[in-house]
């Protein structure tokens, strides 16, 4: 099997998210209650960084981590530097505020173009707050790259293609994907625990910050202006439980009873 | 004209003193290789420590065997003083040294002390070679020194006895041993006596000079080093001795100590000072439970031997640090002096000191508390752990999980940070956010917040505080691990991260007084946070409860509780670290029906539960389990319960009880607050 000879240029998109599995929403303002909730690197993005760093360690090259967000998102980038990424870039500008997935992926795509021509763009499968899973594919669309989502393992790295396992419930597909490509990864790639030395070095490193102008993003395509969707309302659905044990002589009688109950509750 | 005797004496003296100076200089140059450390401050306080621990032998006398050393120490000083007239009179018979050579009381005292030295030596020999406690090594060096001291004393008695026999001297009139020895020579002619005096005088002088040369070349360097070691001993409180590390300093490129020359000169002096008494190993839970770590071996042998061989090579090559040699230099050296090159390449951790030794320490501080020469063992362990964790990224796997949990969930258990205050949900406890400038912050700690057993102590404490009307609040979800275990595990980076975040929050709420029921949090908040700008008055819940009762704020009902014998366990971090032994005991004694009893190892000599120094988060695969040993010591007293004061001790001891007590024997481990809460 011919493995890759050249070095690999990789960009990893990481998002800083509030550490919560249960997003608490302010019912009045429809925004996240971030107060007192610590921020973390979106879990699958850490896996994406890990996948990228492993490839770099094997084939050589460079890993750049990229995030869009407020200045405090630098903390998330530093975590990835500590893991072994080589460079970190934060795109931060009021012009990006209020972006939906389309505008987010546009802005990230512009930043990636500004970085150069990476062989692979890694993303997480989805962010635990926004939860759409659309940004990765969006970037691929904007840049015209091939894409594979839900990747659980990168099996082979070649000069012009990758072989990856794409997970689905109960199994996986083996996919050969042409490079350059966007790959979004799931939780299966266990991120490493950064060395203390790495963490200290990362805590001291400079993070490059780019504005919308720096990356030549069109003002009408970023932030609220560039968003084609808008969240009308975000809420925690009320969970109602209803349970009842039905007793009957045989299956037929039970079925009738069940249909009766459904009709009673206007389910049928 | 110089007499022949004087010429020979002077030649021998010159040779001996030169050999002594040469050896001593070698040792001093080796010490000078150590890193800088300022131990020259507060001379008054240091001098006081010198008087107490050297002149009065304070730390030695904490063990009753210490009196042997006391005899030998003071006896030796008087013997040395006595050498002045003895030698001078031998050389110049007409000379009488004022006071020393003429005062009968001086000789009386010297006689008494010399006899005590003799007795001390005999007891020492019996102990070392007949009783044979494990902590004393039966080395040739030990035997040589006993023989040398005996020879010095006896030849002096033999010489002076003959002098008295020859013509009674009023200076010796009270010296009863001299007069006894004079009796030996009854019937000798004056000529014979003269010859006897000459022979024994020379023997004495030769032995004396031999001793002088032997001291700096043997373990008895201890004689010269330990007085200085006591003077330069740390003045910081027990819990505040971990070396500072400025992580922001750009000059800092290597963390911790991975080469012996990176220890400070004072840390190196420790090794020279060790008298090999073995008090440390005798009380070390790691050593007793069969782990490879032995604090005496560590200091007196392993580190010293390595220091001497590496220091000698470095001084020969004229380098201050092994890093000064490039790879080529080393290759060159290997060609010319293979052995030297090998010595320089030895790894402190790995070749000299094993990782199993390094990670076995519970930082219980028994060694350091009991060491009569004020050696500082614990920091060396932490310095080397820092090197392994921060520099080499090489440490026990289990610790990584705990570090990870701490970083993401802010507690080592890895339970969601959002559940930190769940223990208090049925109590009407305010959080700092809702309370208005409460007098106290109740710092619950990770154990008290997440560990099911420790939560009960938190609840009991909160109830007591409420009953006494104490104005307090908790931080709730804003509290994070204090960082004790990560610091003791050598992860200074993570510790400082935690410390700074906590201090930020505490200072933001203008917290002044803190109550805690975890001795580890207690020590960290009180002794380690000041370095990072957190200055708080910290009080252990057992101390506060005592105070509340004394002030009449907490009224206890006289309830009927079962009669029980409770055997008390001092935690290291409340006991040895804070020297608080009485507060928990006092509370237990207030509980009706409780008879408080002691284990054999108690107070300063208490035996660790095995959970300190991050050991709580590591596997214990070598030797016996420390907690089981402690529980055996407790069960030997046939108690109905074990009393403790630390959430980690409670967990460790309860585990031990499960292992060691028979199933029908229910021996709970209790915090005094749990019993006091029953009396509300
Ligand atoms: C409370 C709340 C309010 C919102 N309001 C609006 C709104 O008003 N209008 C609207 O259109 N959308 C809104 N969103 C959605 C928001 O635009 C998305 O969070 C964002 O576009 C990213 O999408 P996502 O979180 O679904 O990411 P996903 O598509 O799930 O993320 C997939 C991957 O893309 C990458 N990625 C995603 N975001 C970034 C980033 N910022 N930087 C770097 N990499 C990234 C990461 O690798 C991530 O794993 C809101 C979301 C929330 C939680
Ligand atoms: S601190 Fe305790 S465990 Fe560590 S070496 Fe000293 S006595 Fe042994
Ligand atoms: S280190 Fe201290 S306690 Fe241990 S053997 Fe040496 S002198 Fe004794």
Please give a structural write-up.
- The complex is a heterodimer of chains A (about 270) and B (about 675).
- Chain A has about 270 residues and is of the alpha/beta class.
- Chain A contains six helices and eleven strands.
- In chain A, helix 2 (about 75-85) links the parallel strand 4 (about 60-70) and strand 5.
- Chain A starts with 7 loop residues before the first strand and ends with a helix.
- The mean pLDDT of chain A is about 90.
- Chain B has four domains: about 5-30 and about 65-215; about 255-390, Fumarate Reductase Iron-sulfur Protein, Chain B, domain 2; about 395-550, Rossmann fold (3-Layer(aba) Sandwich); about 565-680, Rossmann fold (3-Layer(aba) Sandwich), CATH 3.40.50.
- In chain B, the strands form two sheets. Chain B has a four-stranded parallel beta sheet with strand order 2-1-3-4, with helices on both faces.
- In chain B, strand 3, helix 23 (about 520-530) and strand 4 form a beta-alpha-beta unit.
- The interface between A and B is medium-sized, with 12 and 19 residues.
- One iron/sulfur cluster (SF4) binds near residues 295, 296 and 375 of chain B.
Helix-strand category of chain A: alpha/beta
Q: What is the name of the CATH class of chain A?
A: Alpha Beta
Relative helix content of chain B: 40-55%
Apparent shape of chain A: globular
Bound molecules: flavin-adenine dinucleotide, iron/sulfur cluster
Number of domains of chain B: 4
Global shape of chain B:
globular
Q: Specify the biggest β-sheet of chain A.
A: 9 strands, mixed
Give the tally of β-strands of chain B: 8
The SSE string of chain A, one letter per element, is EEEHEHEHEHEEEEHEH
Query: What is the radius of gyration of chain B?
Result: 30 Å
Spatial strand sequence of the major β-sheet of chain A: 9-8-7-10-6-1-4-5-11
Mean pLDDT across residues of chain B: 93
Give me the CATH superfamily of chain A.
Answer: HUPs
Count the domains of chain A.
1
Radius of gyration of chain A: 22 Å
Cα separation of the termini of chain A = 58 Å
CATH architecture of chain A: 3-Layer(aba) Sandwich
Average pLDDT for all residues of chain A: 89
